Amino acid sequence: MRIVFCGTPEFAVPSLRALAGHGSFSVEAVITQPDRASGRGGRVTGSAVKEAALELGLHVYQPETIKSESSADFLTRIAPDAVVIIAYGQIVPGRLLGIPRLGWINVHGSLLPKYRGAAPIHWAIANGETLTGLTTMQIDAGMDTGPILLQREIEIGADETSPELSARMREAGAELIVDTLLKFDRGEIAPAAQDSANVSYAPILKKEDGRIDWGRTAREIYNRMRGFAPWPGAFTAFRGQICHVWGRPGDGAGGGGGIAAGEIVFSGKEMQVGCGGGTRLRVEFVQVEGRKRISAQEFANGARLAAGERFGVVN
Q1: What pLDDT, in 10s, does the model give residues 49-73?
Q2: Domain end (from 169, 198, 227)
Q3: Distance of CA 97 to the CA centre of its chain
Q4: Spatial separation of the C-alpha atoms in residues 260 and 264, rounded to whole Å
Q5: pLDDT at 37
Q6: Assigned domain for 172 exists
């Protein structure tokens, strides 16, 4: 089966490697985003998919936009059986969808139609889900609205972060895309329409998503800490400065003991913050903007906390 692979970040790399190393497929070309400047030095680097493709000796094509005429000509010349697209980062125009015989096959990091959008792994954790999964589908003109081919459920660990879950899911995704393409080509699976009654969304993350609302329960705040790692993280304000906070729920719900939401209590070596529903968050690390991350004990000792001081809302 002649394949064009379309993807950009590390999440897509295991699938590319799986297809390139499988005897049933020939990866004719890899489409990925143009090289970009990154880091403090502004060094121009290629995507994770580009680096993997070059290592595998594959042809790399990097259009500024997939909507260009040159992109259409490129795909028409190759005439692949399928285009596999995973976290590419651009919307594919409708006129390109009919070029491959089997269509454009996507691996999405949720059990569609739940968590359509750019950040399904992050939002599933942030919302406290204990089960998620992967979906392969034929893409159409909508945003993650295409017909489903195969799905695989994946449990979310109680303390698992987005990077940890993503690492597991990208490996599982590689197995699923191979299985999907082989079965679809043999006619063993048929595309199934998504259930529009169960749609939910996972929009691209914004910095403000990391702002801690101390009115939420400690478990809800902890879920968002896990889901929004490493960016935007979880941040609040202290004495007019932004600070990032890491921690986990304190012992038992309802143990707030009259502590107000956001109020800081430091006793011995432990720092806790009052949260919604009478719960507490046990703080482990704090990083004031522009400084290094330190333990909660170091922060409390250095700040010389006064009774009743609170973490507050960032304006």
Answers
A1: 999 999 999 999 999 999 999 999 9
A2: 198
A3: 25
A4: 9
A5: 85
A6: yes
Residue whose tokens read 């800490």: 225
- 33 and 54 co-located in one domain: yes
Which residue range is the domain that position 273 belongs to? 207-303
Rounded Cα distance between 199 and 160, Å, is 24
For residue 284, give the CATH number of its domain. Answer: 3.10.25.10
Asked whether residue 310 is assigned to any structural domain, the reply reads no
Residue 254's pLDDT is 45
Closest by Cα among 120, 132, 200, 227 to 172:
132
Same domain as 179, residue 36: yes
Higher pLDDT, 254 or 144: 144
CA 289 – CA 293 distance, rounded (Å): 9
Place of tokens 């038992």: 252
